[in-house]
Amino acid sequence: MKLNNKKILVFIFILVLGYCKSEDLKHIPKKETIIKDVCPRNNYEFYQNFIFYEYDVIKQKDQLRVEHYPTSNERRIDLFYPYIKNKKGGYIGVGTDQNLTFIAWAKSDYAYLVDFDWVAVYINRLHLLFIDKSENFQQFREKWSLKNKKNTIQFIKNYFKDKEEQKKFLKAYSIALYPVQERFRDLEYMSKHFKFSSFHNNPEDFQYLKKMIQENKIYPIVGDINGTITLQNIGKASKKLCVPIHVIYLSNAEEYYRYPESFRKNIMSLNIDKDAIIIRTVTTGAKIFGYPEGEKYLEIPFHYNIQKVENLIQWFQLEKLWIYHMLKYRRDIEKGFSILETTPLEAGLLQTSIQN
Fold it and tell me: Rounded to 5, what percent of the chain is helix, strand, coil?
């Protein structure tokens, strides 16, 4: 078959157009690749998805027993160890030094340290800075020692050039100095009496924390677990990171509220799976539920509890809910330590509401 010049030109045009389209398609990733590339491929991309800059504005703190909690006073956190050991995944925790223990135990992939007290947040930032600048725990401890107070204050002044930030770090350091030293003595007591192992006497735990800090994977931020910004942003970040949250530490914060809608939304917004657990303490009802040996303050001891996040979400079906009533359905593991596995359906509560 013979082709005239016009037909030949049209044929060539079609071939060239087809070639251009096929070349363009090479630069358009397939759908599977687009989905895969959402997940971070290196530490830089991880950091970009991990960090955010909008937080809750804390106008008024809950009525606590004291104004600040610069250190933990929970002595039996060793009870949590078998349940969070090597949990991996993401970590969310309130408070200060106890989080360092839990992160190292769990070998968390990333961690958010959230507190509505800016002093606690700045104490956490000092902990991370001091660990980063220390080769071992002893050097870290010396930065909190009274004999090195002048040197540490000068270090803070030299490190933080912004005057407003400098003032906040110096105030946090001043508030935490004596309590941190006391907490270090508590850690030794806990090790002696309960075979407690943590970053203070386990070099591997210390180095794990140091590595996470150097990779910018621990983020101390201001936030309210009942707020509408910080936890929601953590939820978004946890999804972009493609690594589910596996450990949520709430200390005894749940005693101060009745699970408002904002808290429920915050928990349900997180990237979680079946392995996600909550570790908590309670003082309300602790003398009824039982408390372990060795508590620091026997007049207000702690009961220690764990619960799968999936189980807690089932309890959200109840309009009125308080941790004290929920823990009536716990299963005791040992004195002062329990697990909550019962669902509200199994407890026969779905047709009624828990009354305050």
Answer: 50, 15, 35
